[in-house]
Amino acid sequence: MKILIGQSYFRILDQKELERQMPYPPLGTIYAATILKRLGHEIIFYDCMMGGNPEDFNNKIISDNPDIVLIYDDEFNYLTKMCLSNMREAALSFIKTAKSVDIPVIIYSSDATDFYSSYFDAGCDGIIYGEGEITITEIINSFGKNNYNNERINIDGLKFSDNDKVIVTAPRKMIKELDEIPDPDYSFVNINAYRETWMKNQGYFSLNISTTRGCPYKCNWCAKPIYGKTYNSRSPRLVAGQLSDLKKKYSVDHIWITDDIFGLKPGWIREFTDELMKLGLKIPYKCLSRPDLLLRNNTLPDLKKSGCKTIWIGAESGSQKILDSMDKGTTVQQIYSASEKAHNLGIEIAFFIQFGYSDENWNDIKLTREMIADCLPDDIGISVSYPLPGTKFYENVKAQMKNKTNWRDSDDLDMMFSGRFARNFYKILHRLVHTEYRMHKIIKEKNRKKLPRLFLYFFRFIVLRIQLKKYLTAVNSRLITDCKEVYHSI
């Protein structure tokens, strides 16, 4: 069959990501295309990450006249898990265009799984939920049979509408042997376009891979619509071999390992390091982990030896009260210790920070700011708590969500429930903490050449501090004292 495949996440609709100029190919979509091509299907791949706009995809539906349109989102990229309304609107337009010319449409995405009624109302023929690689092969094959409508009920991991009734088939069993899944074929996308963007804006070229699927931890704000709490790994040997191939074919300088938790399986990182050494290969990479895991056994030295450059951790908060409320299973002290040990080994460590969680007060926010100042991570990513369907956190706050249930893009950062402070407070806080962080970085360096930038940040900080006074009666003045002391010392 002739299958037009793409995803609903368009970088051009996400201004923050467009400005970052660090695009990664849609890995999950490429996996799906690779598998279907191996089964003999004709694949028309539209790369929405580098695409011009959603209307281009609509035009391609008409011009290429495929047998099926498959919208298969990249669930290895956190941006697609955020259920951004810009991307939902794009997906719905694809469905309507395809159905206007009688082409069936299958969807695979977190948003479609959670908010399926919008997709069925638009005419979608089926929504894949759970792990998708096996389900897509079965549902695509079913379209070649005369009794397609009857076949759907026997396909696990599928939602479809039958006479205005939503049918949900049995959950799809997880693929435990990930080594059986073929490596993604990056030739579906224009690798040169990615390389040129990276080299022009970052000075190096990075690609993305996946080594595991799932996360067994129980953070109560984290949705797990695809893999649940399972955790399955590829073999270190095959991952090392994939990196070697990417280096040879595409001359990659850096790798983003997309796993929710990298190297959780005991001994995996050490074995991975050994396999890389056999190949004489060492490629800098970034990954995601947890502070408690980084303190386990010889994890950090093994990461360093394997080529790890940057570790992102879900620090979330400097308040133990908030971490416990989130069911994080980590401590503030572990964050401090992991940061110190990583820096001592020459590994960059970066923090994901989350403001606005239920019962977070100004003192909790101050503790988070202090943690950032004390640990001084190499990068920070700040967000506000985002209620995702299927989570305990969502159930706790959904009654407060009245006017808005999704962000439009990744820079929306709107509080969609009733937090301790007003919505605008968190937008100002986001800018203030970023400004504060940059000031602390310059202060630590004590670089006279950066004094003009320090003064600029200091002025911005004062303005933001004044704006916050609309919401607070007292503001932490610690940073002002620090700035004065450093100014005099320089």
Concise account of the structure shown:
The protein is α/β, with parallel strands linked by helices and 490 residues long. It is 44% helix and 14% strand. Helix 17 (362-375) links the parallel strand 14 (348-355) and strand 15 (379-384).
Write the layout of secondary structure elements.
Layout: E1 2-6, H1 15-20, H2 27-38, E2 42-45, H3 54-64, E3 68-72, H4 78-81, H5 85-100, E4 105-108, H6 110-114, H7 116-122, E5 126-128, H8 133-142, H9 148-151, E6 158-162, E7 165-168, H10 191-201, E8 206-209, E9 212-213, E10 232-233, H11 236-250, E11 254-257, H12 268-278, E12 285-289, H13 291-294, H14 299-306, E13 308-316, H15 320-325, H16 332-344, E14 348-355, H17 362-375, E15 379-384, H18 392-397, H19 423-445, H20 451-468, H21 478-489
Parallel strand pairs: 1-2, 1-3, 3-4, 4-5, 8-11, 11-12, 12-13, 13-14, 14-15
Antiparallel strand pairs: 5-6, 6-7, 9-10
Unreliable stretches (pLDDT < 50, length at least 5) are 474-479
**What is the overall number of helices?**
21
Strand order of the largest sheet: 2-1-3-4-5-6-7
Helix content: 40-55%
Q: Give the strand tally.
A: 15
Intertermini distance: 69 Å
Main pleated sheet:
7 strands, mixed
Note the overall shape: globular
